[in-house]
Specification:
Elements lengths: L1 H22 L25 E3 L2 H8 L6 H10 L3 E3 L2 H11 L8 E6 L6 H14 L3 E5 L3 H5 L5 E2 L7 E2 L1 H22 L7 E2 L5 E2 L5 H10 L4 H17 L5 E6 L28 H5 L8 E6 L15 H4 L1 H8 L3 E4 L5 H13 L11 H9 L3 H7 L4
Parallel strand pairs: 3-10, 3-11, 4-9, 9-10
Antiparallel strand pairs: 1-2, 5-6, 7-8
Helix pairs in contact: 4-5, 7-8, 8-9, 14-15
């Protein structure tokens, strides 16, 4: 299958080049690929940019998932272009060969700050969307533990706090990403959910009804998310759906403390935030017909910064044992081919201009150390 996809991509590129030569079509840039379907990305597309259609971008990333600086670049360039990179392709290749009847695989992206972990997750989200996965996506989990919109005492778990507004916002994000697919799958809830004496979600009700309740009644949003993710695990294991869990900043779940204070000015631990518990549970390997793709990052920690970017250090012992066994995937900075493609893309967008003096790209390479974020900052407007 992979060989066929690679050959198809190469033959499509060759066909386009032949037509361009005979019929005067615009020449295809060396840094772009005409293959817009992530499932057809392969070795020949590594280091090339592809464009995400606007309707897909709005569906997947309207409520987060792309770094803020990258979103500004999208607005400036008037297109959402992602580079095809090896870590994302590695995970896609694993998924094509996966036996989904076995417990879910957990992939952990790690690497230096600014290496491109979040954009690899965005590429994988687009792949999951194209392959009809139900997406369980948390754009940046540390936001809940650092800057919650509102806190409230939990009515179901004593000594814990709810984040009702953050929970309702995540349900809006989930519905926006998966609404059309859930309509087609016609998934239902397996039991009665009693919220108050007058408010109940009965067994057999559409899963979207449960989601709507959490959006309209933010007070119950955290409990709705717990029920929703349990239902998705059951549906996936039964073969009625296939689920992809994508979480950025996952290691924040295992940090010793958060920035959320109790009434006695004591910092809460992440396990006492009810919104985080379902996402710890869904990343266990006690269900099938799904996959978990998680990114760990030093920026996800609240205060102290780890010296190492390796998962063993960032996840602490508890998180590492929770994910064991896992598949670590390292995200490095640009290689020479990727760096050249990025420079050519910036030149094409008139974002940087070639000077008369040769070697400006060599200078950028040295200053940025081929780190994608640093390169973006060096080329940013003043």
């Amino acid at each position: 299958m992979i060989r066929g996809a690679v050959q198809g991509c190469w033959s499509g590129r060759s066909l386009y080049s032949s037509l361009a030569a005979t019929k005067g079509l615009p020449k295809l840039d060396d840094f772009r690929t005409i293959e817009q379907d992530p499932d057809r990305h392969g070795r020949t597309t590594v280091g090339r940019f592809y464009t995400i259609p606007n309707d897909v971008r709005k569906q997947l990333f309207s409520h987060g998932g792309l770094p803020k600086n990258f979103e500004k670049q999208i607005k400036t360039f008037n297109e959402c272009c992602l580079m095809v990179r090896r870590p994302a392709l590695e995970i896609m290749e694993h998924l094509r060969r996966t036996d989904f009847g076995r417990p879910v695989n957990r992939f952990v992206l790690y690497g230096e700050d600014g290496a491109g972990k979040s954009l690899c997750l965005a590429h994988l989200l687009h792949y999951g969307h194209q392959q009809q996965y139900v997406l369980v996506h948390v754009p940046w989990l540390p936001n809940w533990l650092k800057r919650p919109k509102e806190t409230a005492n939990s009515s179901t778990t004593e000594g814990s706090l709810d984040l009702p507004l953050d929970g309702a916002a995540w349900l809006v994000h989930f519905k926006n990403q998966n609404g059309p697919l859930l309509d087609r799958l016609a998934l239902t809830v397996s039991r009665d959910y009693v919220w108050t004496k007058r408010e109940t979600t009965p067994a057999g009700a559409p899963l979207l009804t449960l989601i709507e309740h959490g959006i309209n009644r933010a007070k119950f949003s955290c409990d709705v998310i717990a029920g929703l993710l349990k239902e998705l695990k059951q549906h996936s294991t039964a073969g009625r759906a296939r689920t992809m869990v994508v979480i950025d900043g996952y290691n924040a779940l295992f940090h010793p403390h958060t920035r959320i204070l109790t009434e006695n000015k004591v910092r809460l631990t992440p396990d006492r935030i009810t919104l985080t518990t379902p996402f710890v549970d869904i990343t266990r390997n006690d269900w099938t017909n799904g996959v978990c793709v998680l990114a760990v990052d030093r920026l996800a920690l609240t205060e102290d910064r780890m010296a190492s970017c390796l998962p063993l250090y960032l996840l602490y012992r508890e998180g590492f044992e929770h994910l064991d066994p896992m598949v670590p995937v390292r995200v490095d900075g640009y290689d020479d081919t990727e760096f050249h493609s990025c420079i050519q893309y910036y030149l094409d967008r008139k974002w940087i201009q070639s000077t008369e003096q040769p070697g400006f790209d060599v200078e950028l390479k040295m200053l940025s150390c081929q780190n994608p974020y640093q390169l973006m900052q060096l080329c940013a407007s003043l």
